[in-house]
Design brief:
With about 230 residues, the protein is mainly beta. Helices cover about 15% and strands about 60% of the residues. The protein has two domains: about 190 residues, no CATH class; about 35 residues.
Length: about 230
């Protein structure tokens, strides 16, 4: 795998950590994606957003083929808007918003033709959600490119209320908070050995023998039938 530290204006290093590699399943932790797209509003009236683009050229080891890939992550969102205390009148209500999107695709050819992949978009997450983007049923023996892109956005606007008493009146702010996090984003690549030519020959020979045996049984059954 070759990582591109800069692509389309994104200058963050594409940090990918090998988590496991066994049984034709290679798992890669995408640490820079998690750090780029996880954010919050820090309890103030503010908005924040960021983009992530990861481009990885993948060479397939001799004697193997890539049969599919998947991108998985857990999304955790928090939306909090405080309510005015009893007896107060609302001057300006607060709000909190978040959103995110993700795409995982395999590209090949000189023009980056998309051969497999899925995308996802979500808004106003207050809780936890798991996502899984897949590209399966492949048989890639030549080099190809994995394209992983994502976006996250958070926005919070503080509310304002007025408290009126017999001898006083004052305005105060109501807290608002939004966060959006990608937890344990993982890219998994599935591989399998490519059968040797001799294996195909043995398989064809076995199928031919099975066909011949079946034909003999049918002929025997017809010859033994009563006239």
């Amino acid at each position: 795998m070759t990582e591109y530290p800069e692509y389309n204006g994104n200058t963050q290093a594409q940090k990918v950590t090998l988590l496991s590699d066994a049984g034709g399943v290679t798992k890669l932790g995408m640490t820079s994606l998690a750090s780029s797209l996880s954010m919050d509003t820090q309890g103030t009236s503010t908005s924040n957003g960021d983009l992530y683009t990861g481009v990885f050229d993948i060479s397939v080891r001799n004697g193997y083929r890539v049969t599919g890939f998947s991108f998985a992550a857990t999304l955790v969102g928090v939306l909090q808007v405080a309510e005015a205390p009893p007896g107060a009148s609302m001057v300006q209500p607060g709000n909190a918003r978040n959103s995110g999107s993700m795409e995982a695709s395999a590209l090949t050819g000189p023009h980056g033709q998309r051969i497999a992949g899925e995308s996802f978009r979500q808004e106003s997450l207050d809780g936890t959600q798991n996502i899984l983007l897949q590209g399966m049923g492949l048989s890639l023996t030549d080099p190809f490119t994995m394209f992983i892109s994502g976006m996250s956005y958070v926005d919070a606007q503080l509310g304002q209320y007025r408290m009126n008493g017999p001898d006083y009146s004052f305005d105060a702010s109501l807290p608002a908070y939004a966060s959006y996090r990608f937890v344990n984003p993982t890219l998994t690549i599935f591989t399998s050995p490519v059968p040797e030519p001799g294996t195909y020959a043995m398989l064809l020979a076995g199928l031919a023998l099975c066909g011949a045996a079946g034909l003999r049984r049918r002929r025997g059954a017809r010859s033994g039938a009563p006239a």
